[in-house]
Specification:
With 212 residues, the chain is an all-beta fold. The chain has one helix at 2-7; strands at 18-20, 25-32, 35-40, 43-46, 49-52, 57-62, 68-72, 75-80, 85-90, 98-105, 110-119, 135-138, 145-150, 155-161, 166-172, 176-180, 187-193, 196-202. A 6-stranded mixed sheet has the order 1-5-11-10-7-8, with no helix packed on it. It has a 5-stranded mixed sheet with strand order 4-3-2-6-9, with no helix packed on it. It has a 4-stranded antiparallel sheet with strand order 15-14-17-18, with no helix packed on it.
């Protein structure tokens, strides 16, 4: 029983343990209690979350010794055996901006969170801008203060959380403004300036680095 409880413990966000996926196939390897890997150029990198793109295929390899039902977004893959069994999931434009890969272990009827997947360019109805000419939003990741700078007057500045809820709004008559982020929880936010939207990561106090 102790082995079962330790097998799929919730993987907590930790310093630097975020990986950016750039290939069309992203492989996640569940090794043991504290070892969830993202294979980068064939090399396993210890992670707690990854960024993927729409159209990517996520391959999850169960290298543990326990059979489990894995869920990605709303899709469940049942009876994925231990010892190098795997399954695949394709990221769709209709997916949510982020979801957690979970594992349900029938032997103890418990569901465990494994890793968080952030999907680029999905913002719950908000289109993410890819043309950054004339507008700067930094630093990203942000800890305390976000700077927004434009060649022209900024106008309406809005910030949304990952669920698409408006949490900040201001009309700026200058070409530069600062937004206080220190009270916001860590995670993904979207900054909209006019018709341009940018994804911003709010890091935790002790987080040294997050790669997008």
């Amino acid at each position: 029983m102790k082995t079962l409880k330790n097998l799929f413990l919730t993987i907590l966000f930790a310093t630097g343990l975020v990986s950016t996926a750039s290939a069309t196939k992203d492989t996640i390897r569940v090794a043991n209690t504290t070892q969830i890997y993202h294979l980068v150029a064939g090399n396993p990198v210890l992670v707690t979350s990854i960024n993927v793109n729409v159209g990517d295929t996520i391959v999850v390899e169960n290298w543990s010794t326990i059979t489990a039902d894995f869920t990605m977004n709303t899709t469940t893959f049942t009876n994925i055996c231990g010892t190098m069994c795997d399954f695949q999931y394709k990221v769709l434009p209709t997916d949510v901006p982020s979801f957690t890969i979970t594992a349900f272990v029938p032997l103890n009827s418990t569901t465990y969170n494994l890793i968080t997947v952030y999907v680029n360019n999905i913002t719950t109805g908000i289109s993410v801008n890819t043309n950054k000419i004339g507008l700067e939003v930094y630093p990203n990741p942000v800890l305390n203060e976000l700077m927004i700078k434009s060649d022209n007057q900024l106008g309406e500045v809005s910030i949304f959380n990952i669920s698409g809820q408006l949490i900040f709004e201001d009309k700026v008559e200058d070409n530069t403004t600062k937004v206080d982020f220190h009270t916001y929880s860590s995670g993904v936010y979207f900054v909209r300036v006019g018709d341009k939207v940018y994804k911003i990561i709010k890091q935790t106090e002790n987080l040294n680095e997050i790669k997008n």
